[in-house]
Every structure is written in C-alpha cells, then in structure tokens.
Write a structure and sequence with these properties.
The protein has 523 residues and is α+β, with helices and mostly antiparallel strands. Helices cover 34% and strands 22% of the residues. The longest helix is centred in the N-terminal third of the chain and has 35 residues. Bound molecules: the ligand Nc1nc2c(c(=O)[nH]1)N[C@H]1C(S)=C(S)[C@@H](COP(=O)(O)O)O[C@H]1N2 and molybdenum atom. The ligand Nc1nc2c(c(=O)[nH]1)N[C@H]1C(S)=C(S)[C@@H](COP(=O)(O)O)O[C@H]1N2 binds next to loops.
Length: 523
C-alpha cells in the first residue's frame, strides 16, 4: 500500500497526464481571456460605449483578412466558397488552441517565458484592434480585462500546481475544474460573440423606424419581366435571398444619427452630407442587377433589386469635381474601398446612394444606412456598403481595396447568361421541357438569348420583358426533349449585337467568361 507522502516515481502515464494538464492550464487561460473579452465587448457595444472593433476575435480575423495574400485568399474561396468566414474562424480557433496550450506547457518549465509569450499574444490582439479603421483607444478595454483574467488564472494554476523539473501530473480534481472553466469561458465567448454580431439596439431601432421616402420616379415591374418558369431566380430577388459578399466578419453597425458622407479630394467644395439631408433629397428608384466579379460561369453571386436613393451625380455636381480627376474612391465605415470611374458616376446613369432595397431600408448586411449602387460595374469597384466618404481623385494616385490584391482597377460587367432549369445533372421526362434562366450585360442591355442542344443549331429563346438595360433578363426555350443524355449551352447577345464569348476565363482579374453548359438525362 502506498501513501500520499511517499509518491511513486513518475511513470510514463503520469508524464502524459502531466503534459496534458499543463496544456489544459494554457487552454483554460486562453479561453477565459477570450470569453471575458468577448463578453465585455458584447456588453460595451450593446450600450454604445465602444464601436464594433472591441472584439479581439473579430479584430484579429478582419486584420488577417485584410492582410491575406491573394493566393491564400483564392485558395480559401476555392476550397470553402462562401463558407470562407467560418473556415477562417475555425482556423483561428485551432491556432489559438495550439498557442494557448504552448503557453501552458511553458509555464511548467519556464514560467517567465510563459508570461512573456502570453503578454506578446495579447499585444498582437491589441494591435489588431487599434489598426482597425475607426478604432478608438477605448476599444482595447475588453481585451485588456480579458487578458488580466487570463493572467490571473495562469498565476493561480502555477502556484497551485507547483511545477518541478518533472512534468507534475495535476490531480483529477484540478483537471476537471480547469476543463469546466475552459468550456464555460469558450461558451461565454461564443454567446457574447453572437451578441456583438447582432444588430445593436440603436441601429436596429433606427432601421425599423425608417420608412423609405416615396421616390420622385416610381419603378413599375411588368409581369412579363418574369417568364413564369419555376426554378428560375425571381426577377427581383428578396433581400433575405440576395447574395452577400464583403470582407467584414461582422457587418459594421452604423447609426444613421451619427452617419455622414464626406465628399473630399479634387473638388471645388468639400461637402458633408447628413442622413437627414440625404433622405430629404428627391430620391430615385432604379432596378439594378449587382454582380460579383468572383462569380463563376453558372454561379450565383448576383442579384437584382429595386434600389431607392439619391443620384451620386447630383452630390458630385454640388462638390464640383476638378479637371484631371478620373476616379472616385469610396470608403466604407470599416475602411474597405472601391475605385469607380468618375464618368460612371456623372454620365447620367442611375448610380445611387441607396437607402432602400425593394422598398425597405437596406438590411444591415447590405449596407445600412447607405450604400452605392452603380449599373454596369462589378461590385468590387462600385457597390460600397456602409459608405462614409467619396474622394474625387485619379487612378494614378489611388486604388481600391482589391486592386493591390490582384484584381483589375476597372471592372465593367461582362456579358453573361445562366441556365437555372433544368439543373446540371437533372433527369427530365421526354417531351416539352422548359429550359430557362437569366442573361445580363448591365448598362448595355440584352437583345437576345440562344440555346444549343448538343451539337445542334443555336435556337432563339423567348425573353422576359425588357425592364431596363441595367438589369438582367429572364429567358425561356421550349425544348422538345428526346430520350438520352444531352448537353445544353446558352449564350447571350447584347444590345450592340455582340455575341457572348465562348472563351473561358477565370474570375480573376476582371470577371469570368464562357458559355454556361448543363448536362441532363432525358427518360
Ligand atoms: N464595405 C464594403 N462594401 C462592399 C464590399 C466589401 O467588402 N465591403 N464588397 C463589394 C463586393 S465585392 C460586392 S460583389 C458587393 C456585394 O453586395 P451585396 O453583399 O449587397 O450583395 O458589395 C461590394 N461592397
Ligand atoms: Mo464582389
């Protein structure tokens, strides 16, 4: 029989458990740090004491996104698609777990080094917070408090576990307590993270109180805009089904009461426009199809909506752009930028400072309170959400967010078309089959759509009503399907008579091309 005062020599098993115990100490401290910081950030954001940049997890993630090299970004989008944000957060969780466990292991052998490592990691998070656009000094408070809690736990564990030259196995009770503390900490982090990513009370209240003013020109969408085939994307896409693309892990919360739009740079008069001034302007309504440059042939990163807003050209006319300017750099509340040709914002097209989407206030994730919508250009060079500044400048002097990341400085939308039904790989019954989808060439317009079955001749599809050159058109072709395997291709003809190219190009650097083709089995 052995006694407590006469311990056995350390065995392999004890060493393993000891290793695990110290790693757990590190993990627990990391989880407590983040849990406390996220909880504090959630509370402080809710009460409006700090901006949305107080969350260390979001700040580090967004800083990482902004500094991701182009190849890694391409890799992430290829592998994870629109789940890339979830993938990033998961990756961060894994890296943090390893780092925190490392701090715990160091604590057993080289406590000073462990504290130094912990403080360095904390300093990195603080730096990430402070370099976020719009960050203020108080945004570091949650992370500092979390860090203090984490350090206190490290210290308590160290005095309790009394490390020796050997790995000392913590007793079962300590391990259980630590596991529980880590889990609770991580749980709080997750919950508080949700609180942060949810709309703050002030912004939600402002949004639900806002009625989109009646525009001076109201759009009427003829029923013929839809070809009436089930499975084709609706002509006007409801906001909650509209694709979303941005670099924000959590959409910026912008209170209209404090929002303003500054017009700066090469202008006769700098202008600051308030929310009250903006919504008192004569607003226009426009049907515009937005499209992401990352949209693959056959992809779904596109949507059509009725936007309500004030023409950007009217604002620019008040500011008076100076000779020589050829670009407007728009900046969002989270520091993202787009470079738009000055001509596209002054040439009379429906480029809007939009406050409404399908008659409702913009959803927060689509840019509330104000975004830009410019017909004819991919979103990355025009559709700035949460817009706060328009700088009149030149392509020689400035560049938008995606340009140094490998995307073209200019991004006019290319002619495209997509088959929505039948879906690729579908099985259909022989006889009449509706082949249908959409075609687009924003701000030029679509005059025709043609469909080809296998190696047959191009057949003319019936087009939905032409609502505006700025929006997509639906089309349908009644196919007399015979049994067998068939491939169906589509191509569009734009308003200049140009036929959509068959040459396939990847999205980078300025938009994908090629004919969308689906394969179906007819029985
Ligand atoms: N502030 C901000 N605006 C942005 C972006 C962004 O990352 N940040 N992405 C742009 C891109 S690439 C596209 S395709 C459109 C998408 O708009 P949506 O999310 O409303 O569909 O927003 C544009 N506006
Ligand atoms: Mo995009």
């Amino acid at each position: 029989m052995t006694t407590r005062t006469d311990p056995k020599p350390t065995t392999e098993a004890d060493r393993d458990r000891g290793w695990f115990g110290w790693a757990l100490v590190g993990f627990a401290s990391g989880a407590l740090t983040l849990g406390a910081a996220e909880l504090m950030a959630g509370i402080m954001v809710r009460f409006g004491w700090i901006g949305g940049t107080g969350s260390p997890v979001l700040a580090v993630g967004e800083t990482f996104i902004d500094h991701t090299p182009a190849w890694l970004k391409t890799f992430a989008v290829n592998v994870f698609g629109t789940a890339d944000k979830v993938a990033l957060l998961t990756g961060m969780g894994i890296v943090l777990t390893v780092l925190a466990a490392g701090v715990g292991l160091l604590l057993a052998r080289r406590p000073t080094a462990a504290y130094v490592a912990f403080v360095l990691l904390l300093a990195l998070a603080l730096a990430a917070i402070l370099i976020r656009p719009g960050a203020s000094a108080t945004d570091v408070v949650p992370t500092l408090l979390g860090g203090a809690a984490g350090l206190a736990l490290l210290n308590a564990c160290r005095s309790r576990l009394r490390p020796t030259a050997q790995w000392v196995a913590p007793d079962r009770r300590t391990v259980l307590q630590l596991s529980a503390a880590s889990l609770v900490g991580a749980g709080i982090a997750a919950l508080a993270g949700q609180a942060v990513s949810g709309t703050t009370r002030a912004v939600a209240a402002a949004r639900s109180a806002f009625r989109v003013p009646t525009p001076v020109s109201k759009v009427r969408i003829p029923s013929g805009a839809s070809v009436g085939v089930a499975g084709v994307v609706p002509f006007v896409v409801p906001a909650d089904q509209f694709y979303r693309i941005d670099t924000a892990l959590s959409p910026p919360e912008v209170d209209p009461a404090t929002w303003s739009l500054k017009v700066t740079g090469m202008v006769e008069r700098e202008i600051t426009l308030s929310w009250a001034e903006l919504i008192a302007k004569p607003l226009q309504e426009a049907v515009v199809t937005l499209m992401c440059v990352s949209n693959e042939v056959g992809g779904d990163l596109t949507g059509n909506a009725v936007w309500t807003g004030w023409p950007v050209r009217d604002l620019l006319a008040l500011a008076g752009p100076k000779a020589g300017a050829d670009m407007v750099l728009s900046t969002s509340a989270d520091g993202w930028t787009a470079g738009t040709p000055l001509t596209a914002l002054t040439d009379g097209r429906n480029a809007l400072l939009a406050v409404g989407m399908n008659g409702e206030p913009l959803p927060v994730e689509h840019g509330f309170p104000v975004r830009m919508v410019v017909p004819g250009l991919y979103g990355y060079v025009s559709a700035t959400k949460w817009v706060t500044e328009l700088k009149v400048t030149t392509y020689a002097d400035d560049e938008g967010y995606w340009t140094p990341r490998g995307w073209s400085a200019k991004g006019p939308v290319k002619t495209g078309s997509r088959i929505d039904v039948p879906a690729d790989g579908a099985t259909v019954s022989a006889g009449k089959v509706a082949v249908a989808g959409i075609a687009w060439r924003q701000h030029v317009g679509i005059d025709g759509v043609q469909v080809r079955i296998d190696d047959g001749d191009w057949q003319t599809a019936r087009l939905g009503a032409d609502v505006t050159v700025d929006a997509w058109r639906q089309w349908v072709y009644e196919w007399d399907a015979r049994a067998g395997s068939h491939s169906i291709a589509v191509r569009a003809v734009d308003h200049t008579g140009a036929v959509q190219t068959s040459a396939s190009a990847a999205p980078a650097p300025d938009g994908a091309t090629g004919w969308h083709t689906v394969n179906v089995t007819v029985t």
